[in-house]
Amino acid sequence: MGTSYMRVLLVEDDERIVNFVQRGLKAEGYAVEVARSGLEGITLGTEGKFQVIILDIGLPDLNGRQVCERLRDNGINTPILMLTARDTVQDKVTGLRAGADDYMTKPFAFEELLARIEVLMRRGGGEIKLEIKEFRIADLILNGETHEVMRGETLIDLTPKEFALLECFMRMPGKVLSRTRILEQVWGYSADPLTNVVDVYIRQLRRKIDDDFDIKLLKTVRGFGYKLDAS
Ligand code: CA
């Protein structure tokens, strides 16, 4: 399994913690997306594409417990690790009641965070398998379990990054994705925004999934980004 499939959502407004966690996780091969408010956390978390959600209890709008409850109400089973500044039994109990899977007190050592994430990912393994399934647009099929990509009867050989890029489009058919969004999702948040790596990979992906076929699926939307659709 390529590193690009380990996606973590960090819901936290404290920039120091965001930087600390993001840098550390990225170095470990995780792709990290950041939500800086509770509502943004609910929106991103409900996309269901993360293996773990790290959720701070103190957020500018909703608190972490409310975010957790809303995610569970939305049917999201992603393991949630809650962060809090206070180490009280009451905090822990209410956090776990809201549907969190684990709990950590700030300040924490990065190694501990990493160990807890690994445990949660292992525990959540069964559910992740159900989440990652087959995506289809026209005659293009991406299988998240076997990592096979087919266009009609043709098996298409993709690198792990090309696969992650295609998966990103197939999860949101017809939706225009900006370079920045693609960069964040496939390469992680702290990728250099000036890099042309997205364009390079789009060209490579196009060559493999579109060049030999009459109907082109991967389209450029001038001034906005790219989308994948059959129309
Ligand atoms: Ca906070």
Which descriptors apply to this entry?
elongated, binds calcium ion, about 20% strand, Arc Repressor Mutant, subunit A, four-stranded antiparallel beta sheet, Rossmann fold, alpha/beta, about 40% helix, about 230 residues, 2 domains, 11 strands
Structure description:
The chain is of the alpha/beta class and about 230 residues long. It folds into 2 domains: about 5-125, Response regulator (Rossmann fold, 3-Layer(aba) Sandwich); about 135-230, Winged helix-like DNA-binding domain superfamily/Winged helix DNA-binding domain (Arc Repressor Mutant, subunit A), CATH 1.10.10.10. Helices cover about 40% and strands about 20% of the residues. It is built from 9 helices and 11 strands. The strands form 3 sheets. Strands 2-1-3-4-5 form a 5-stranded parallel β-sheet, sandwiched between helices. It has a 4-stranded antiparallel β-sheet with strand order 6-7-8-9, with helices on one face. A hairpin with a 5-residue loop joins strand 7 and strand 8 (about 150). The model is unreliable at about 125-130 (pLDDT under 50). Calcium ion binds near residues 12, 13, 14, 56 and 58.
